[in-house]
Specification:
The complex is a heterodimer of chains A (about 425) and B (about 160).
Chain A (H helix, E strand, L loop, with lengths): L5 E5 L9 E8 L2 E9 L6 H5 L4 H8 L7 H16 L4 H33 L4 H7 L1 H22 L8 E2 L2 E2 L5 H27 L12 E4 L10 E4 L4 E2 L4 H4 E6 L2 E8 L8 H8 L5 H10 L10 H22 L16 E9 L2 E9 L5 E7 L1 H20 L5 H13 L5 H4 L11
Antiparallel strand pairs in A: 1-2, 2-3, 4-5, 6-7, 7-8, 9-10, 11-12, 12-13
Chain B lengths: L1 E7 L7 H9 L7 E7 L14 E8 L8 E4 L1 H7 L10 H10 L6 E8 L10 H20 L15
Classes of the chains: A alpha+beta (about 425), B alpha/beta (about 160).
């Protein structure tokens, strides 16, 4: 079969947030070209932030992504507070973690049930899957709805939330709202429990591969919005040192920037987080993970799906822990006094590490902004994975099988292409 | 139960669905539920529980002049599928999913207002005018109708 020439072009990837395309050219049994293209209109958010006052930053960055606005707001709040030398205190830190739990819940539930599950249950789309597995879709919608409700509790609304501010939140929920939320969270635990076991029982491809995991690591907790940046090959740095180790570069076929750690691709996201923070799982989540029999750290990229479901469980357990002894504070936000400086923020978005850097003047006006989203950090890793996964799968398989496998590999990273898109124009001629 | 949902995002004319909801506040029988949602994707299905008649107002990009208002049929929706929505499931897919899950209300009406996709802040004039006209039409249609509460317990309930 080595003489066969195949060219697969998937013009618009389905079931991936945002829009992208994959070009794959196989000649004489070898991959001659493999490129994940991104053609959504470029985003100018870094430039757009310049000249804006610090209190406009959170509202602006929330618009970068309709799926993970909380992540953008939390990294930005942390960075601006870092520049101003502001320490938000335990109540704000805890509630930001709860806010973040809501986002993991809704984003992971959407991905697992509506976008990824059809791949592993053998359907083209969730619509086809719903007729045969309605309970799977209903569970996804329930968990997604719970995540949205948790975001609304602190954000005022679930998509493009407006409740977060530099220094805290505009409003603290009253005890009755939190009590109602706690009831919903407790009621969802069986769903989350079943979900993890369901994911562990799925027939996932066995695809062991070597990659470097990168995630935040906190002293004691599973990481959301605090910690140092660590990797499984020894990196352990403060978030301000990110630029000394990670470099972003343009590639001609993509408007996203490709991030490299010491010149090599790396992985961020649920699998990387779990690989590096298994010992910091809440006790109930760790017990559940042990029940699955799947061992982490794992080098099977498809265990991302299982990691994502376990993080749904973590999010519910953590939200319950943090809300259980809730007391409404007298003030939900600290007074903010701008000062000139550079600030850094790094949090774990559902899709992985989201790093921000802002330079602000003494009036609190943004002079420079840099935002590194998780999908651009995974970009090089996705291409490397595609290349070896397709070779391992067998290039002599029929085109539609190759196409589906390629789509499955890409979708497994849950890429949010609209977030990752930067400013370079596409359409550069390929060499 | 009758529910009117305005779909949108905070970008320019895409807010038109929300504007229609805002205009309908206090103009309808309180039993008609008004909801503005920001790009809910499949989570729209969570708003169908117990609803007998669902009215959806959304922004539309179909090549007509900004402000053009249309009541969309199933085939219109199919033709628009995958067009303007870059996140999550689009409206046609979401309704198809709701159908597959047996969650669709008895009656679903969808109104689209053509927007100027380049409008960046606030609503453009023609679109704002059409929001007023559509709100008036909906208010008239819905106040003329006897409101009967039909609570249909189903598994599409909102958590």
């Amino acid at each position: 079969m080595t003489e066969r020439s195949v060219s697969i072009h998937v013009p618009a990837m389905t079931r991936v947030e945002g829009e992208g395309s994959l070009r794959l050219r196989i000649e004489h049994g070898e991959i001659r070209e493999l490129a994940l293209d991104i053609f959504e209109p470029p985003r100018y958010f870094e430039k757009f932030l310049e000249g804006r006052r610090y209190h406009e930053v959170l509202d602006t960055v929330a618009r970068i992504c309709g799926i993970c606005p909380v992540a953008y707001q939390m990294s930005a709040a942390q960075a601006v507070e870092d520049a101003f030398g502001l320490e938000p205190g335990p109540w704000v830190r805890d509630m930001r973690r709860v806010f973040y739990c809501g986002e993991w819940l809704q984003s992971h539930a959407l991905h697992v049930h509506l976008l990824a599950a059809p791949d592993f249950l053998g359907f083209d789309s969730v619509v086809g899957m719903a007729a045969r597995h309605p309970e799977v879709v209903h569970r996804g919608l329930r968990l997604q709805g719970l995540g949205n409700a948790l975001i609304r509790l602190l954000g005022g609304r679930s998509v493009h939330p407006v409740g977060a501010s530099v220094g805290g939140f505009f409003r603290a929920p009253v005890e009755a709202e939190v009590g109602d939320m706690l009831e919903q969270l407790h009621a969802a635990l069986p769903d989350a429990h079943d979900l993890v076991l369901w994911a562990a029982a799925l027939k996932l491809p066995q695809d062991e591969q070597a990659f470097t995991s990168v995630a935040l690591r906190h002293d004691t907790d599973y990481p959301f919005a605090q910690g140092r940046i660590v990797s499984d090959d020894g990196l352990n740095i403060a978030i301000a040192q990110y630029g000394d180790h990670f470099v972003e570069e343009h590639r001609p076929h993509s408007t996203a920037l490709f991030s490299l750690l010491h010149g090599a691709p790396y992985l961020v996201g649920p699998l990387a987080r779990l690989n590096l923070n298994r010992d910091h799982l809440p006790a109930a989540s760790l017990t559940l993970l042990l029940q699955t029999g799947v061992v982490f750290p794992s080098s099977n990229m498809f265990h991302s799906l299982l990691a994502r479901t376990l993080e749904i469980h973590v999010a519910i357990v953590e939200a319950i822990r943090l809300l259980e002894n809730y007391r409404r504070p007298t003030a939900a936000q600290l007074a903010v006094t701008p000062r000139a400086g550079i600030g850094y923020g790094a949090t774990e978005a559902p899709r992985g590490l989201l790093w921000h850097r802002y330079e602000l003047d003494d009036q609190g006006i943004v002079r420079a902004a840099r935002i590194v989203p998780p999908t651009s950090q995974n970009q090089a890793r996705i291409e490397a994975d595609l290349r070896r996964s397709l070779l391992q799968y067998g290039l002599n398989r029929p085109d539609d099988k190759l196409r589906l496998r390629a789509e499955t590999v890409i979708r497994n990273y849950d890429p949010c292409i609209s977030c990752a898109t930067h400013f370079l124009k596409i359409g550069v001629t390929r060499q | 139960m009758i529910r009117i949902i305005g779909l949108g995002s905070p970008f320019g004319d895409d807010q038109v669905g929300w504007r229609v909801i805002e205009l309908l506040q206090d103009r309808l029988d309180p039993q008609v539920d008004l909801v503005a949602l920001d790009r809910p994707g499949a989570a729209l299905i969570n708003w169908m529980a117990g609803v007998r008649r669902l009215v959806i107002v959304d922004a539309l990009v179909s090549g007509h002049a900004p402000g053009h208002t249309a009541r969309l049929t199933d085939s219109d929706l199919d033709a628009l599928a995958g067009g303007t929505s870059s996140h999550q499931l689009d409206l046609a897919q979401t309704l198809a999913l709701a159908g597959a899950l047996d969650c669709l209300p008895e009656q679903v009406e969808i109104y689209g207002i053509e927007i100027d996709a380049l409008q960046r802040t606030g609503l453009s004039g023609a679109v704002a005018d059409s929001a007023v006209t559509l709100a008036k039409t909906l208010a008239k249609t819905l106040t003329d109708l006897p409101v009967t509460r039909v609570e249909t317990p189903n598994s599409c309930s909102r958590s």
